[in-house]
Amino acid sequence: MHIPGKFKQDNGAELEGVIRDYPFATLVTYSSSGIAANHLPMVLTEVNGKKVLQAHIARANPLWKTVSEQSEVLVIFNGPHCYISPNHYPTKQETGRAVPTWNYVVVHVTGVMRYVQDENWLRAFIDNLTTRHEAGQPVPWSTSDAPQGYIQKMLPAIVGLEIDITAITGQWKLSQNQPEQNRLGVIAGLSCEHDSQYQQVAALVKAQMTAK
Fold first, then answer.
1. Degrees (nearest 5) of the Cα angle 103, 82, 199?
2. What is the pLDDT, as a whole number, of residue 212?
């Protein structure tokens, strides 16, 4: 990923925050069959003091047969993003010199992937994944709510993935290349939109300005 200096994100807490807040990721792999992309919910956790990503796929997915164990993979996490109109820039009114662009937050994780078929690992992972995503429900569902033995019978239908992280890079493209008046214009313009993505990007642009 090409990252201009103004947009580079080095803060580990911010990078991991996007992984946790936007866990539905794109797993990119390469094998003799070519390039493949799978879209999976990921969990960032620690194993033996080392940070890893965990996920699972259906056993019917050929990934675990075509991509070798210990292969290097890329995982992409997309945070908030939205279109930026030149109309948000006060300088556009003065000079007309402005073009559209896109603001976004993205995190790339590279690592080495292995497959897990141990039922105890798979059960613990499914319990963890469910607990995380049910936390906001009025009455959180638990795997124990399923009929006795039902979840256990389904475990052979999935294969676990564990990715030992080797690098995390991030790009926060939030109008940092614009003068202050244009960034304020972006905040004002996006804040008037009803779409939550625009509101989130507006908040991020504002936070970026405050941090500087």
1. 105
2. 59
